[in-house]
Design brief:
2 domains; 15-stranded antiparallel sheet; about 600 residues; globular; alpha+beta
């Protein structure tokens, strides 16, 4: 059985990532990219689907663990009756091949250790051929190869590479696992000591560039590091999470592949990175965005692969039993084929934020935006699947219309504030038309709230974005009423559900069985609304509660299950960490205003 989601730590080299459990086992790792097949897939199955354990003989969970300050170098320590031992885990910044380095260090006494390496390719579906070659142990199957270098003797037992050894105080034993294309010769071993120094220095230099010095600095900086780790370095794309199929409800079917780049993350990501001083990362993400969405505006997708791939065919891995029996296990994401009107607004807003915050313009950015706006002008009235990617009938989602308004609003501002060319009067007219329609058809006077879709009486947490994107001020009576209605209807133990997933008119609201946790990004949006409406103390209290949901390493999944007190959903989740970063800015800015202006 895999550990609770919050018991995992993140390692990364800005091209892929590994999850290391508190028990010393790497249970998830896709090589060579975030979206490649996993060579360790025990997270979604059993040990036989691939994992890499290094721990004291007979030991359970580690006594303590922490990241070295300002890095993703993980220190995991065990206290045993015979002594203490530390395992240092990291992934060096990518050279030619991806490496995972694990260094066992004797802290006190003598500790008997065990190492179990179960190498499986294609998400645990392929057992490789293992043989010795030179000074390493090589595993090969199909296009994939792995080579293990260590000074510890290893043997094969039941398709598992095993080692039993003793580490004494002051001694260390390194293990280096390297992926390579199987048609190439196995690479030479890297020096683990030099790799550790380089990795510590690389992360330290990156963290030192952070300009955020406000309250909750530790949490903000750790979240920025998560975003950096989820960035695919060669292209600048940011994946939503490094995992697939971690369930939104334990035992449920809402299990999706998040190893792709969502356009709706773009504006928040640019804002977070530019505000913190990470101009290069913001520019790389902006450039990825422009390259990826270039082409026919009618073919704009809500998500893409890390290099801009468009075909994200969804299928199921029936040989994996799922995280805590949560089936199916999915690879790919069929939502990439949906119509979501909101993404046009998200793209235009992201590029507007880049202009506003001084990023050097991309040469084709404005021409591309004009094409998107031209297309949106003919399509914004249509129903769609909406921000939450429903798998039921299309609807006239209020949030989608609000984001269409955002697209034309930012276009008008581009002309007015930056003197860019365009049919500004047409855009003003469309902006006003959409605003009037949303206020007339998306607001329910009896409820005193905006609603999920035209004609519905259901609430939706995406409505919390109305003041955050500037559609209406946070002090508008309709926004205040919406916040109060969401607090009455969608709160679970103080945290916000995306929407009610129960059955309506005899069918599921979103085409799926009901049940999921509270959505953490939505709860951060509630924090922002409270702060912007002058309720600073309430905003701060809720923000502190959200910080308390992080695991001991500062990591957040997508959702929180208040019934079980566990993190659920893919992990760690960029959207959650983006919310954490941006809410810190919102609270700090609101609190800095004089009391008479806080709700103005």
């Amino acid at each position: 059985m895999p550990l609770p989601i919050e018991d995992y730590a993140l390692l990364g080299d800005t091209q892929t990532a590994a999850l290391v459990g508190r028990d010393g086992s790497i249970d998830w790792l896709c090589l060579p990219r975030f979206d490649s097949g996993a060579c360790f897939a025990a997270l979604l199955g059993q040990e036989g689907n691939g994992r890499w354990l290094i721990a004291p003989e007979g030991a359970g969970l580690a006594t303590r663990r922490q990241y070295q300050d300002g890095t993703l170098v993980l220190h995991t320590e065990w206290e045993t009756p015979d002594g203490a031992v530390r395992v240092v885990d990291f992934m060096p910044p990518r050279g030619r091949n991806p490496d995972v380095v694990r260094i066992v260090e004797g802290v006190r006494g003598r500790v008997d250790m065990r190492m179990e390496l179960v190498m499986r390719f294609d998400y645990g579906g392929i057992v490789p051929w293992v043989h010795r070659s030179g000074d390493g142990l090589v595993a090969v199957a199909g296009p994939d190869g792995l080579i293990l270098h260590t000074d510890v003797p290893v043997v094969g037992e039941n398709f598992t590479t095993v080692a039993h050894f003793t580490v004494e105080e002051g001694a260390s034993h390194p293990f280096v696992l390297t992926w390579f294309p199987s048609h190439e010769p196995p690479p030479r071993a890297i020096d683990p000591t030099h790799a550790r120094t380089d990795t510590e220095g690389w992360w330290g230099d990156w963290t030192d560039r952070c300009r955020y010095e406000g309250e909750w600095s530790e949490a903000v900086k750790r979240s920025l590091m998560v975003l950096k780790a989820l960035t695919y370095g060669p292209t600048g794309g940011i994946v939503a999470a490094p995992t697939t199929s971690l369930p939104e409800e334990i035992g449920g079917v809402r299990n999706w592949d998040y190893r792709y780049c969502w356009l709706r993350d773009a504006a928040l990501s640019l804002l977070a990175m530019l505000s913190a001083g990470y101009t290069d990362e913001a520019a790389a993400w902006r450039d990825w965005l422009v390259r990826t969405v270039a082409g026919d505006p009618s073919e704009l997708q809500i998500m893409y692969g890390v290099a801009g791939e468009r075909r994200l065919l969804e299928f199921e891995l029936d040989w994996l039993e799922g995280y805590e029996r949560s089936l199916p296990v999915r690879v790919g994401n069929a939502a990439s084929e949906q119509l979501q009107i909101d993404v046009y607004g998200e793209v235009v807003d992201a590029l507007h934020q880049a202009r506003r915050l001084g990023l050097v313009p991309h040469p084709i950015s404005w021409a591309l935006q004009r094409k998107l706006l031209e297309f949106l002008a003919t399509r914004w009235r249509e129903p769609d699947e909406g921000i939450w990617e429903i798998r039921g009938p299309r609807q006239q989602f209020t949030h989608s219309k609000v984001m269409a308004w955002v697209a034309f609003d930012r276009a008008v501002k581009a002309v007015e504030d930056f003197e860019l060319p365009g049919p500004v009067e047409d855009w003003r007219q469309l902006r006003d038309e959409i605003h009037a329609q949303v206020c007339a058809e998306g607001f329910d006077e009896e409820l005193g709230s905006f609603v999920q879709a035209y004609g519905s009486r259901k609430l939706d947490a995406s409505l919390l974005l109305i003041p955050l994107v500037g559609f209406l001020p946070a002090t508008d009576r309709r926004v205040i009423g919406t916040v109060e209605a969401i607090q009455r209807t969608l709160l679970r133990d103080g945290f916000v559900l995306r929407y009610e997933t129960d059955v309506e008119d005899g069918r599921p609201v979103d085409g799926l069985p009901p049940g999921e946790g509270a959505f953490l990004a939505c709860t951060f949006w509630l924090v922002d609304n409270l702060a912007l409406s002058g309720r600073i103390d309430e905003a701060r209290a809720l923000y502190e509660r959200l910080l308390g949901l992080r695991n001991d390493l500062g990591l957040l999944a997508e959702e929180w299950d208040s019934t079980t007190g566990r993190q659920v959903g893919n992990f760690p989740q960029a959207f959650s960490h983006l919310g954490l970063i941006n809410s810190a800015y919102v609270i700090s800015k609101a609190a800095s205003l004089p009391p008479e202006r806080r709700a103005g």
